[in-house]
Structure formats: C-alpha cells, structure tokens
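Hello again, I could really use a second opinion on something today. I've been puzzling over a protein and I'd love to understand its fold better. I'm sending you its amino acid sequence along with the backbone structure tokens. It would help a lot if you went through both lines with me. I've dropped the whole record in just underneath, so have a look.
***
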Amino acid sequence: MKSSFVFILTFIVALMLEGLTFPAEFIWFRPEWALLVVLYWVIALPLRVGVGVAWFLGLLVDLLQGGVMGQHSLTYVLITFMCVVLYKRLRMYRRWQQALFVFLLVSINQLVGFWLDHYTGDAEPTLMIFMPAIVTALLWPWCFIILRSVRRIYSIR
C-alpha cells in the first residue's frame, strides 16, 4: 500500500514538472520528466512498473501537453518494453553509461514526436529536437540518486 502511494506520488511530481511552462527560447531545453521517472522505476522494479503504467502515464502527458493523443503512450510503451527486456543489463552499467542509454531512449521519443508533428504539419526539421534528450540524460544521475533514496527510505521492493 505504501509503495503504491510512493509510485503515484513520484508520477504526480513528474507530471507537475512536465507541465511547467518554459520561455519560448528555452523550450528545447525542457527535459522529459515523466519518461525519466518511468525509466527509473522500470529499471529498479520491472515487475511492479511496466508497460501498462507507461501507457497510462503517456496518456496523461498527452492530455497535459495537448498534442496528438497516443503519441507519448506509443513511445513510452516502446521505450518501457526495451527497458523491461534489458533491465538486468542496465542495472550493471555505470551511471554515465545508463545516461547514454537514456539519451538514446529519449531520442527515440523525440524522433517519433517529431515525425508525428511533421506529418501533421506542425514541425520544421531541426537538430534541436535532440536537446531534450541531452538534458534528460544529464539529469539521469541526479534523478536516479533521488528516486533510489526515496525507494530506500520507504523500503520499496
């Protein structure tokens, strides 16, 4: 019961951070908070947080950002599936190696989002679409430390 509350609370905080508004010139530096939290919980506890949770959180992010419905759900499910398959290997990597993997996963998220936005006529081709992946990867070690501390404090297994 306590662990479910902690999961929900971390996802709520991630959604609140996802909903923060950025000035127009810094919009490309906006990290993918919800995906970052999902990645941590999938790597830490893949039997408790999986594809279903990622799908639901992706729907909430779609509602929050007002984009194409199902865009984040699709990418979150694909990314979560990759993490569930590779979670044992990911645990063995150092934090910087995990951050590189997070960069690749968030880049997939950004590419699918760009593709859908470009298809609907809302996006211009630019390499700046990878900036959120870079920022999210740089935040990974800090997010990992904070969420691992929360997990240890509340003895979540």
